[in-house]
Amino acid sequence: MKKAKFCLSLMFLAASAFSFSAVAAEEACPPLAGLGLKPGIEIIEAIRTYTGPDNQSHIEKVELKGETKRFFNNTTVLTQFDLGDPSAVVIVYGHPNAFIPKHPAPYREMFLILEGSSILELADGTKHQFTPGSLFIAEDTTGEGRTGRAGPCGYVALDIQFKPKKPQ
Length: 168
Hints:
- By secondary structure, the protein is an all-beta fold.
- The chain has a single domain, classed as Jelly Rolls, CATH 2.60.120.
- The protein has strands at about 5-10, 45-50, 55-65, 65-70, 75-85, 90-95, 100-105, 110-120, 125-130, 135-140, 145-160.
C-alpha cells in the first residue's frame, strides 16, 4: 500500500509564526492555552537552518504557501500546507531549561512548537526563540551544528522527521 502524502491541514495559523523576544526567567509558566491561532492564514512563516560554506549552521526566514480548497460539497474551506512525506511524526517534550549540546540535525526534520518555548543558538552567538505556532525546519545535517535550550517552562513540539529510507 502506498504511503499517503502527509499534509498539515489548518484553517488558521498564528499571524506571527515566530518571535525573537526574550523570556524572563522569573516569568510564570502560562496555562496550556493552545496555539492562539488566527483564521485566514495562507502562508506559514518559518525559520530554516542550513549548513553554509563555512561549515556552520545559518538561519533564514522562509514562507510555506498553503493551498485553499473546498470540501464536503463546498461547505467547508480548509487551507492545507504540504510538508512532504515524513518517515515519522512524534511529540517531543523538552523539560524546562534542558540544554541541547552543539550538533547538526541528524536528518531533515520540522518542529512545530505547540506549547512553551525553545531557544536556538548559532556559533556566532545569534539566538532565536521559538514560541507556540513557530515552525522550525532543520536542514543543517552536516557541519558543526548549533546548540539549543528549552525555555523556562519547557516545550511541547510536533517533530516531523524525514529519516533516510533503509535499504530493503
